[in-house]
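Re: that chain you flagged

S.,

Sorry for the slow reply, it's been a week of failed gels. I finally had a moment to sit down with the sequence you sent. For the record, here it is as I used it:
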Amino acid sequence: MKKTIRLLAMLMTLALLLSMTALITSCTGNGDGEETTGDENTAGSTLGDLEVRDMDGFEILMCWPETHTDGHYVHNELAPVDGSGDVIDSAVASRNATVEDTYNVKIVVDTKFVSHIPRDYRVEAEAGDSSYHVIASTVKFMTPVALEGSLVDFNKLSAYDETQEWWNHKLMQDFSIANARYFGSGDIIYSDDFYPYCTYVNTDVAASLDSIKDVDFYGMVKDKTWTLEAFHEFAAQVADPEADGDPNTWSEDDMNGAVINANFARAAYYAAGKGMIEFDKKGYPVWQMDVAHTDPIIEKVAKIVHDDGACFYADLHPTNTAHAEVELDLFNKNKTLFLVEELIISERITKRDDAKDFLLLPYPLYDEGSEYISVLNDAAVVSIPVHADRQEDVSLILSAMGRESVNTLTPAFFETVLKYRYMTDPDSVETLQTILDSTVPQDVATISDWGGFMDKFKTMIQTNVTTGFSSYYSSNISTAMGKLEEYCVSLDNYYN
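Prediction finished late last night. Pasting the structure tokens below so you have them in one place:
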């Protein structure tokens, strides 16, 4: 699987010692996140040919999210865009052609708006039908479908097992509901686990400031001094004090310390050590969010964001609601030192005509005694509708696509998106590994925002209001407990 890249650091170090130019083309590891060695799925290696099967021209119908206005789903990762010439599309085309020829199948992919895919299927599921054999969306939108018992548990398919390194078994288990794995994740698509929040450092801005130009950011990550306090200290040195983080007084001429969005707060909540719930051994949720844990986080993170005008919320931009474009414009025009965004945004940075060199760091430590936690904003996944026919054949095809992606899609993604900008030396590779190793998915209570607590938490920090969470909690905890109870009842109904 693409999770492990430490081998790249060793290869690059060797190349530097020998004064040679190394071309690092890919990285994969096994589904458990362990390092791969020898003849396993490592940098520059491939898996052998697929076993020939004859599925009699079976036409497998899939649905993938169309490109979103915020720039997500730039590529169709299940089917190529004809004639684009893009390296990702070429890799997808090569993979699909191999699977189609080897299995005697036809892969047909439609696109819809990301939230419409599960929405439309839920209507069909009520009638016991499905237009597609495979649907792809995000965990956020697919979770209600899984809770209704309308998706197939990969664990129950004979074509799926945990020896197959092209599946990300750890992430699939993290996404599981009562240990049922409804959401496929792995080499078959690259946007499954590349949505962790991380920090981009504009190297031009850093180099222009005497107080920052000699800072070893990678060293800070390694020494675990890359904290929220350090983040604020650097950002405050850069930010225009007149703007004071206020969108009503801010202009595009202002210099920003850090450009963030509302999800910065959610990332901070997880960085503090836990989500809204935890799961018992049977996969059932146990409530853990409380006022005593949450109030200090609100107070601390509000100071990090607002003191000295250190951060600007791109989603509060006075004239433009497409905050991703605002973020990229400010970053590539040298109007911010830091940009806190998803890892996948690196693809958009590198594709722009005004692309900037950058360092990539994990989301800051909550404090020096904590561990790095890179919370996934969301994740694209593939699922099999429970009403789809030929489910075993479908799972075989998905597995074959994942397996062949090790030879095609994964190397293409690491070559074009990762290596070009920040996989340039052992330190950058090691730091990227830190991000990937610290990835944590949101829990279902956060995704569905039981009780409205996460939205309230984010809004309080965004508006710099640090009191009142306790009263809101008291008024809404019964609603949250009701959601938890509904969740448990849904699980009981499905499994019993």
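What I noticed first: The chain is about 40% helix and 10% strand.

Talk soon,
D.
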